Fold each of these.
Amino acid sequence: MNLVQYNHLPEGLLERPASSLYKQLDGPTLIHIPGEIETPLFISVLQHGNENTGWEAVRRLLKGYSNAKQLPRSISLLIGNVQAARFNRRRLDEQLDFNRCWPTSKPGEEKSELHKVFREVLEVMRVKKPFAAIDIHNNTGQNPHYAAINRLDNKFFHLAKLFSDTVVYFTIPEGVLSNAFADICPAITLECGLAGDTHGTDHSLAYLELLLRLKALNNTPVKDIGLFHMVATVKVAPGLEIGFNGSQCDLVLPPELDHLNFQEIPSNTTFGSVRKGLSRPLITTDMHGMDVTNRYFRIQANQVLTTRPVMPSMLTVNERVIRQDCLCYLMERMDPTQSSNRRDEPLPEPTGLDAVGVKTI
Ligand SMILES: [Zn+2]
């Protein structure tokens, strides 16, 4: 596998939906399009083949500049997994997950051909000193749009805030694009809701347009963002019957519990009721697998109540998912003014979970 590069937009490419890009591109392709400001904005689309919002936004963006109208700033566009996009899949069975293959090891120690290709992308872009790097994704649940970063740094906060007031800081999983680019320039992963939702395309298009015109990123402290990091996983204790409103089960969950996703909820929010005498219906573990149930939940008058402000994600009322996976993940608020510009972050890190519990990034 080789990285293919172009110094212009290949003719006809913008006419293609993600599912037919494979007819024109063989694999990961890096396209440099000149603009008035030479320093490029790096944009990545289709790291996951079924997440087409980024490509749809870029198509619309570039069509607006097709008649000899110059871009305000150069763009370096990486088009990722066109083979998986053909079949509307995240990746094909025989493929690695593209957004886990950005090299974290030293040059020459890449684990796969794809790691080598992405190393080459990084080295090409390092020379070009990008203004910022934007990796555009979708997710599967009904989550709001949000921005995710891998550095606690003012410029990263500002880059994120221009997209969303909700910012998620993550360090796991390894091998994601935004983390690799964070060594080169301010970098961000955008989560744009469900693929195919035009609101996600409109939002990312407006964001890219704004960045192309922006002269510099602010490096001052940011106060007014909601910065969250992942702290715990919540499971239902093994062997308990789970029911929903009105049923006579060990644990009865409110049927609209999933409406709390990505809501910052105060202490004493109910997660349901329990059969009398049950003291630990939910088991909560931190990123190291330690039991921290008492830090987040208590029982009072047979109600399961939160003990501190948290923001759940992936909350589900699907019993099968609850049993196979978990009830939810918990995030906690961080103060961006206390955490900016720290590169060696001592926070507990998630293990074995995708990024922020939304299983997408
Ligand atoms: Zn993705």
Amino acid sequence: MRVITAPDPIDAPGIKWGILAPGHIANRFVTEVHRYTLSRIAAVGSRDFARAQQFATEHGIERAYGSYAELVDDPTIDAIYVANPHSEHHAAALLALESGKPVLVEKAFTINAAQAEDVFTLAKRQGLFAMEAMWSRFLPHYPTVKALIDDGDLGEVVGVTANHSQPLNFNPEGRLLNPALAGGALLDLGIYPMSFFHYLLGSPTTVHAEGVLTETGVDQREAITLGFAAGAYGLSYCDLSAAGTNPAEIIGTVGRIDIPGWFYQPQNIVFTPLNGEPITLRTKVEGGFQYEAAEAARCIRDGRVESGVISWADTVAVLRTTDAIRAQLGVVYPQER
Ligand SMILES: NC(=O)c1ccc[n+]([C@@H]2O[C@H](COP(=O)([O-])OP(=O)(O)OC[C@H]3O[C@@H](n4cnc5c(N)ncnc54)[C@H](OP(=O)(O)O)[C@@H]3O)[C@@H](O)[C@H]2O)c1
């Protein structure tokens, strides 16, 4: 039984990041990059100069810009971290790539697969790195789960369950309930289980979803069943109006893995052989975002345009699945009409 240790982010090359949109999650990215890597945040751009300045002061960032265009034009920046609402990722990523800057784009990478293909087409044409910031894939417990499966410790994998519910519907004006900002439980929360299923089982051959929409017309909750060619199923419940414990379970014919805490965050995992005692594998790490940032820095310094951990095809495939789910739920964003 193998525990996979991710390369230590402190050993990755140090690069200079520019932050595009200094909101909630950008705070965490900056904190963990500064704490755990040799990379530094050299500039921040906001639609509002005062907000950029305040963020720069809080994090000791040298330069603040009052527009994204000025940020991506900064010649000292090696890469841009895109952290505005999903609806804005497509335009922001294209802006950065057109200015010759590699991009790490928050999840959901874009609102649909077609937008993601646009971004990767431009990245390919420009010869520039682009990656979805699906940070969980770079944490040690994800590749450890995969190694146990690949080594046959579980036998045949027949079912994976992964749930994600958080009560996030407190602000009717906020991005989570607003269709124009690509709100809804699926792209914000469900994207983690969907990406996890793809990581372990590949693309599904069947997709079934039902759910309840908010008054604003985005998905509040959904139950999703994915079927895979090998006969395995992925099951997920996602909800933005209630608190879940958000575990995952990977069920095989001769063993099982439990991720008992929030499955996509740094966790220890528990392997239980059929008729055997549970064995805890120590895979939990501090922080988390430094792993994806380190992978981006390694790829950029090596001249690679995509990561082998989350390839362009992977990101597009996950969004094809969320497109199919949204079609069944009846969630169409204004940009798609
Ligand atoms: N990886 C994770 O664990 C994680 C966790 C939470 C969120 N995220 C992702 O990160 C992204 C941002 O989420 P967040 O919670 O950080 O969002 P947020 O704090 O609400 O907003 C982030 C930034 O987006 C811009 N923005 C806000 N409202 C906007 C609007 N109506 N139109 C255009 N731009 C707007 C603002 O930048 P300006 O200052 O430039 O105006 C704001 O500072 C989302 O795609 C989300 O899925 C990832």
